[in-house]
Design a protein that fits this description.
With 363 residues, the protein is α/β, with parallel strands linked by helices. It contains 15 helices and eight strands. It has helices spanning 3-49, 93-96, 122-137, 148-159, 179-182, 189-202, 210-217, 219-222, 227-241, 254-257, 268-275, 285-290, 317-326, 341-344, 346-362, and strands at 53-59, 62-68, 75-79, 101-105, 141-146, 164-170, 296-301, 330-335. Strands 1-2-4-3-5-6-7-8 form an eight-stranded mixed beta sheet, with helices on both faces. A hairpin with a 2-residue loop joins strand 1 (53-59) and strand 2. Helix 7 (210-217) runs antiparallel to helix 9 (227-241).
């Protein structure tokens, strides 16, 4: 074979390899974009395929939206965190439904439940959840809440001791939730990336889509440098083109923007109740925790701080120690994770539910 033939053959091979790399890159890019756009809806579809049905109940004149799974064991009530809705639990619902009768609710101001600022207090929402359990669940149940939903779970456990057999507190901001508490020191992430943004949105009328306002004012996205401007523009364009739809972005990693996914169903006036402290009106956090009679599993995401000293976690280590010391029967599980433990580490969350259920049997 001549040198020229060798050259032609090498060129063909190089072209074939380059072509294959282009195809692989294209497929990878397509898969990346597809995951950013559709991963959440696929998780929700899996939950529905496992037997969950979305329903509504009227409790004291207010709509409570919820998803109910098949009756495969003890009743379990799941309460999501601020800015989310029942679908946030989609990653754990199929497995939980195999051995529990799951009721995942939308809190007031979220999802398809009532949007009425008169309902946006811990005690009002907590009392409604207890009434919901009596009306829809019936009998005994385990209650688990994430973030602000964890505070609600503690409230429910205290005020419905005859029926709550166990409680899981998933990274609740206890002792770090009121306006004064959340601004201590350099402040907490929830203040800068939540309360203040909801408040500023309500002070203006030019931007009507909350996700668009959030994207342009987010403390989190501000850490991305020049990317925030691009992301804000893309979010505003999406909201204009798809009003009332869950926000997605093909080009930005899903985990970065997942917090915006349910914002179209969230009432910023709920966030205002945290900004002005009215959500915690009449609530003594220390007393609530002291009065929980059932076994408690407390899931704590490890504490971390930003370079500016802002608390990125829901609580400090001192807050967590106080929770452990205050709850009479408490088992603390700390994990390296972001705030949404059930999403980032579904296996850990499911094990915590199982542990709480086992503790309830032994109690």
């Amino acid at each position: 074979m001549t040198t020229s033939s060798h050259g032609k053959k090498a060129l063909k091979i190089a072209c074939a390899v380059a072509g294959a790399l282009v195809i692989v890159a294209g497929v990878s890019a397509a898969a990346y974009c597809d995951n950013n756009l559709h991963a959440e809806e696929r998780l929700i579809a899996r939950a529905l395929d496992s037997g969950f049905q979305e329903k509504q109940a009227t409790v004291d004149g207010a709509t409570v939206n919820y998803a109910e799974g098949p009756d495969n064991g003890p009743a379990l009530v799941l309460i999501h965190g601020q800015g989310m809705e029942w679908e946030d639990y989609a990653s754990v619902l199929p497995e939980l439904s195999e051995r529990y009768h799951v009721f995942a609710v939308d809190c007031f101001g979220h999802g398809e439940s009532a949007h009425d600022p008169a309902l946006y207090t811990c005690s009002t929402n907590g009392d409604a959840l207890i009434a919901f359990a009596g009306q829809v669940v019936g009998g005994e149940y385990i209650v688990s809440g994430h973030s602000s939903g964890g505070i609600l779970a503690a409230y429910v456990a205290v005020h419905d001791p005859e029926h709550v057999t166990a409680c899981v507190l998933e990274d609740p901001p206890l002792f770090r939730v009121t306006p004064d508490e959340v601004q201590e020191g350099a402040g907490a992430f929830a203040w800068y990336d939540g309360y203040t943004i909801a408040h500023s949105f309500l002070q203006q009328s030019e931007v009507t889509a909350y996700p668009a306002w959030y994207a342009s004012h987010s403390y989190l996205f501000g850490l991305f440098g020049g990317l925030q401007k691009m992301l804000a523009e893309q979010t505003a364009a999406f909201c204009d083109k798809h009003p009332g739809e869950h926000v997605t972005n093909a080009f930005v990693p899903r985990d970065w923007t997942r917090g915006m996914y349910f914002m179209d169903d969230w009432d910023p006036r709920f966030g205002e109740a945290f900004y002005d402290g009215s959500w915690m009106a009449g609530i003594d956090q220390q007393a609530i925790l002291q009065q929980i009679e059932c076994p408690v599993v407390y899931l704590k995401a490890s504490t971390n701080y930003g370079d500016d000293g802002v608390l990125y976690a829901a609580t400090t280590d001192e807050d967590a120690a106080r929770i452990q010391a205050t709850v009479p029967n408490c088992e603390t599980i700390e994990i390296e994770s972001g705030h949404d433990i059930h999403y980032e580490h579904p296996d850990v969350f499911v094990k915590a539910i199982d542990q709480a259920a086992a503790n309830a049997v032994l109690a």
